[in-house]
Amino acid sequence: MTDSNSDQPAELESSSQAYDRLTEFFERHGLLSSAAEVHGLLTGMIAGGAGVEGDEWLLLLSDLINEGNSFPPDVREQVSLMAAELCASLRDPDLGFQLLLPGDHEPLHERLQALTAWVQSFLVGFGVNQTNLAGLSEDLREAIDDMVEIAKLDIAVDDDEEAERAYFEIMEYLRISAMLCFNELGQNGGAGCKTNKTLH
Question: pLDDT per residue over 143-157, tens digit each?
């Protein structure tokens, strides 16, 4: 019987398994951020044009989620892998990018909590590189404005079909907006989306 916490390759996991495993992994290493927050931050940084080669981005990430303390080697390895997978999924011509959130079996309020944490973190990561929104396309400015509103969502909701549908619509909107952001800024960012990791 295999250990369910083993770091199996992410492509063999469902995203909810990856979410549970990564949240547990970050907790085990004393990080205060959930998997949704780390994923949101990294997505915002990469989609906003931050490079993820060298150590600069890791120092920035440790400032944001680890009180400026450097990451232990296995956390560095894990977030580097997440960054590489994010780059690959944001570049995927089949639009394979997905938000990293709890599975559908979790209560809706928990999923909404993770969703708002993801978008709040995305905006922080995005703001690292993009402080002046005036130069963005109208579509992207509108998407960022919408994200700011979504980040303020009240998560006290009824767990019904309508709320469930709204959750999926918001999640899909954020997914498309992140890809739009990457296509406009991350794809052509000076540093590009190069990482120290090679995906096979």
Answer: 999 999 999 877 666
